[in-house]
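Q: Can I see a sequence and its folded structure?
A: Here is a first one.
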Amino acid sequence: MAQSKPWYLSRTIWASLVTIVTAAAGIFGYPVAEIDGSALSDSLLQAITAISGLAAIFGRVAASSRIG
């Protein structure tokens, strides 16, 4: 792997977080049998990607100095 990416764009990290959260929810008695972990991980990753893109745009617009 020559390229790197932020941790929050990793499918493995999100799949692991979903696994931990669903396991904890099951322990506390919440119904989690119907949850598709893979689809939830992909949805979370897409949401995080969109949010980070918006943060980058708003950060650049609000910046007080030029790039370069």
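Q: Show me another, different protein.
A: A second, unrelated one:
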Amino acid sequence: MNDAHHPINLLCPGDPPPSGLPIVLVAAAALVDSDGRVLVAQRPAGKHLAGMWEFPGGKIEPGEPPELALVRELKEELAIDTAASCLAPCGFASHAFDDKQFHLVMLLFACRKWHGRPEGQQGQAVKWVRVPELFRLDMPPADRPLLGLLQALL
């Protein structure tokens, strides 16, 4: 069906992502409590996308395995302890931030086991929500494509 009468760009509409932007790798967690709720954190004032709700996590340092980066970020951001073996890969999202001149690749992991009570350590609000409510939150464009996948998994 990919012939002169059916060009491929009509089958999958939208512009291709820009190339040549630096890639920023991040690891994020869908922390799931015993009631099936997911923890989201609000981006603090003064940061890119301030006020939006996101999955907690952060940048992966060069040479750092994603799981260890996420364990480190959860300790720094939420004061909780978990282990790489408690993280289950869920999926990933890819999004170009033209205005910030980078392309984000976010690896999402589900986590059901940790020690401590998650509390924002950098002034960010946190809350537990049911998966359907995630669709109604103002979330960054990189988080949003993962909601359907997360709903199917939980």
